[in-house]
Amino acid sequence: MSEQSSKLIIFFDGGCPLCVKEMRHLRKLDEKRQITFENINEPDFNQRYPQVDVAKANQYLHGQVSSGEMIYGLDVTHAAWSLVGKGWMIAPLRWPVIRWFADKAYLFFARNRNRISKLLTGKERCAQCSID
Protein backbone atom coordinates (compact mmCIF):
# COMPACT_ATOMS: atom_id res chain seq x y z
CA MET A 1 0.00 0.00 0.00
CA SER A 2 1.45 3.39 -0.93
CA GLU A 3 1.70 6.34 1.42
CA GLN A 4 -1.15 8.04 -0.44
CA SER A 5 -3.51 5.10 0.15
CA SER A 6 -2.30 4.42 3.67
CA LYS A 7 -4.89 4.95 6.41
CA LEU A 8 -2.21 6.26 8.77
CA ILE A 9 1.35 7.50 8.50
CA ILE A 10 3.30 7.32 11.76
CA PHE A 11 6.28 9.64 12.10
CA PHE A 12 8.54 7.99 14.68
CA ASP A 13 12.00 8.49 16.21
CA GLY A 14 14.18 5.84 14.59
CA GLY A 15 16.91 6.40 17.17
CA CYS A 16 14.72 5.39 20.10
CA PRO A 17 14.91 1.66 20.86
CA LEU A 18 11.48 1.60 22.56
CA CYS A 19 9.84 3.53 19.72
CA VAL A 20 11.36 1.20 17.14
CA LYS A 21 10.28 -1.85 19.13
CA GLU A 22 6.66 -0.64 19.09
CA MET A 23 6.82 0.16 15.36
CA ARG A 24 8.20 -3.33 14.64
CA HIS A 25 5.37 -4.86 16.63
CA LEU A 26 2.75 -2.74 14.84
CA ARG A 27 4.24 -3.57 11.44
CA LYS A 28 4.05 -7.27 12.26
CA LEU A 29 0.38 -6.94 13.25
CA ASP A 30 -0.49 -4.74 10.25
CA GLU A 31 -1.31 -7.61 7.90
CA LYS A 32 -3.41 -5.36 5.63
CA ARG A 33 -0.55 -2.82 5.36
CA GLN A 34 -2.75 0.11 6.38
CA ILE A 35 0.06 1.94 8.17
CA THR A 36 3.11 3.65 6.70
CA PHE A 37 6.05 4.02 9.07
CA GLU A 38 8.33 7.04 8.57
CA ASN A 39 11.52 7.60 10.53
CA ILE A 40 11.87 11.33 11.25
CA ASN A 41 15.67 10.95 11.27
CA GLU A 42 15.99 9.88 7.64
CA PRO A 43 18.15 12.31 5.61
CA ASP A 44 15.38 13.08 3.10
CA PHE A 45 12.55 13.29 5.64
CA ASN A 46 12.20 17.11 5.44
CA GLN A 47 11.93 17.02 1.66
CA ARG A 48 9.28 14.29 1.71
CA TYR A 49 7.27 15.65 4.65
CA PRO A 50 7.73 19.44 4.85
CA GLN A 51 4.49 19.72 6.82
CA VAL A 52 6.04 17.87 9.78
CA ASP A 53 8.18 19.89 12.19
CA VAL A 54 10.95 17.42 13.07
CA ALA A 55 11.77 19.20 16.34
CA LYS A 56 8.16 18.83 17.50
CA ALA A 57 7.94 15.28 16.14
CA ASN A 58 10.98 14.53 18.30
CA GLN A 59 9.06 15.74 21.35
CA TYR A 60 5.91 13.66 20.83
CA LEU A 61 4.53 11.20 18.31
CA HIS A 62 2.99 12.60 15.12
CA GLY A 63 0.70 10.88 12.66
CA GLN A 64 -1.26 11.73 9.56
CA VAL A 65 -4.58 10.12 8.67
CA SER A 66 -5.71 9.54 5.09
CA SER A 67 -7.66 12.84 5.01
CA GLY A 68 -4.37 14.67 5.59
CA GLU A 69 -5.27 15.67 9.15
CA MET A 70 -2.39 15.49 11.63
CA ILE A 71 -2.90 13.69 14.95
CA TYR A 72 -0.56 13.54 17.92
CA GLY A 73 0.57 11.52 20.93
CA LEU A 74 -1.78 8.84 22.19
CA ASP A 75 -4.27 9.65 19.43
CA VAL A 76 -1.67 8.26 16.98
CA THR A 77 -1.12 5.22 19.17
CA HIS A 78 -4.86 4.57 19.45
CA ALA A 79 -5.39 5.00 15.70
CA ALA A 80 -2.55 2.60 14.90
CA TRP A 81 -3.61 -0.08 17.36
CA SER A 82 -7.22 0.27 16.15
CA LEU A 83 -6.12 -0.36 12.56
CA VAL A 84 -4.48 -3.63 13.62
CA GLY A 85 -7.54 -4.71 15.61
CA LYS A 86 -6.14 -4.00 19.07
CA GLY A 87 -7.55 -0.53 19.76
CA TRP A 88 -9.69 -1.89 22.57
CA MET A 89 -6.49 -2.40 24.58
CA ILE A 90 -5.81 1.32 24.84
CA ALA A 91 -9.30 2.74 24.25
CA PRO A 92 -9.69 3.61 27.95
CA LEU A 93 -6.77 6.04 27.56
CA ARG A 94 -8.99 8.12 25.22
CA TRP A 95 -12.00 8.21 27.57
CA PRO A 96 -12.89 11.58 29.15
CA VAL A 97 -11.10 12.31 32.43
CA ILE A 98 -8.69 9.37 31.94
CA ARG A 99 -7.58 11.01 28.67
CA TRP A 100 -6.20 14.08 30.48
CA PHE A 101 -4.10 11.96 32.85
CA ALA A 102 -3.01 9.57 30.10
CA ASP A 103 -1.88 12.47 27.90
CA LYS A 104 0.17 13.94 30.77
CA ALA A 105 1.75 10.53 31.43
CA TYR A 106 2.48 10.11 27.71
CA LEU A 107 4.21 13.52 27.53
CA PHE A 108 6.34 12.52 30.55
CA PHE A 109 7.24 9.27 28.78
CA ALA A 110 8.02 11.08 25.50
CA ARG A 111 10.32 13.56 27.25
CA ASN A 112 12.13 10.77 29.08
CA ARG A 113 11.96 7.98 26.49
CA ASN A 114 15.73 7.70 26.15
CA ARG A 115 16.27 7.22 29.89
CA ILE A 116 13.31 4.85 30.10
CA SER A 117 14.66 2.93 27.12
CA LYS A 118 18.04 2.59 28.85
CA LEU A 119 16.33 1.18 31.94
CA LEU A 120 14.20 -1.28 29.98
CA THR A 121 16.50 -2.28 27.12
CA GLY A 122 19.98 -1.31 28.29
CA LYS A 123 20.20 0.97 25.25
CA GLU A 124 19.47 4.69 25.44
CA ARG A 125 19.76 5.44 21.72
CA CYS A 126 20.79 3.64 18.60
CA ALA A 127 22.44 5.30 15.61
CA GLN A 128 19.45 4.28 13.52
CA CYS A 129 17.38 1.29 14.48
CA SER A 130 15.49 -0.34 11.64
CA ILE A 131 11.93 -1.61 11.91
CA ASP A 132 12.50 -4.05 9.06
From TrEMBL:
SUPFAM superfamilies: Thioredoxin-like. This is Thiol-disulfide oxidoreductase DCC. It comes from the Bacteria. InterPro entries: DCC1-like (IPR007263), DCC1_Trx (IPR044691), Thioredoxin-like_sf (IPR036249). PANTHER family: OS04G0668800 PROTEIN, SI:CH73-390P7.2. One of its GO terms (molecular function) is protein-disulfide reductase activity. Coiled coil: none annotated. It comes from Idiomarina zobellii.
